[in-house]
Amino acid sequence: MGSTSDRVSGAANQAAGKIKQAAGEVTGNDRLKADGKGQEIKGKVQSASGKAKDAAKDVVDRM
């Protein structure tokens, strides 16, 4: 995946995870809350990966 697609996927996963967590909270579904938290963390990792790829590209471009 490219840095932009990592960042977009990351943002989407973070948003979906937060929605799942909220739905789990409202319904009292602990599994849905846990799934949402996991998806949110996955999104944060994807976003960080995209940022790291951008930073690495910047370093290479400056050489």
From TrEMBL:
Entry similarity comment: Belongs to the UPF0337 (CsbD) family.
Regions of compositional bias (Basic and acidic residues) in chain numbering: 28-43, 51-63
Domain CsbD-like per the UniProt entry, residue ranges: 6-58
Disordered, as annotated region: 1-63
SUPFAM superfamilies: Hypothetical protein YjbJ (SSF69047)
Name this polypeptide is given: CsbD family protein
One Pfam family here: CsbD
Species, as recorded: Xaviernesmea oryzae
